[in-house]
Design brief:
Shape: globular
Number of strands: 3
Number of helices: 4
CATH class: Alpha Beta
Largest sheet: 3 strands, antiparallel
Distance between the termini: 26 Å
Radius of gyration: 15 Å
CATH architecture: 3-Layer(aba) Sandwich
Order of helices and strands: EEHEHHH
CATH topology: GIY-YIG endonuclease
Length: 103
């Protein structure tokens, strides 16, 4: 009998935008719908609790948690609204990030 271990939970990297704050929020989660409820209700998050108008700007699935966390850190380190808008505009950047931070 053969057993294989696999990760059935995909992780999502997501970016929210608040017009009120004119700021982006970058996050990673295994349960995107629950996380959005958390942000919308401002349950304990100091940053997203500052505004009630957070809207989804961009989201994409990753192959594993390690990859999602690495991409999240990469985007945060860039500290650039232009970089974030380019992620949405040029999908190949996301593909390059997934290859760079492969599981």
């Amino acid at each position: 009998m053969e057993y294989t271990l696999s990760c059935s939970v995909n992780h999502t990297v997501y970016i929210l935008f608040s017009k009120k704050l004119d700021r982006f929020y970058i996050g990673e989660t295994a349960d995107f719908n629950m996380r959005m409820i958390f942000h919308k209700q401002s349950l304990g998050n100091k940053f997203t609790g500052k505004a009630k108008d957070w809207e989804l700007y961009l989201k994409f699935e990753c192959d594993c948690k390690k990859q999602a966390q690495a991409i999240e850190r990469h985007i945060k380190k860039m500290k650039s609204k232009i970089y974030i808008s380019n992620l949405k505009k040029y999908g190949e950047i996301i593909l390059k990030l997934k290859n760079r931070y492969a599981c």
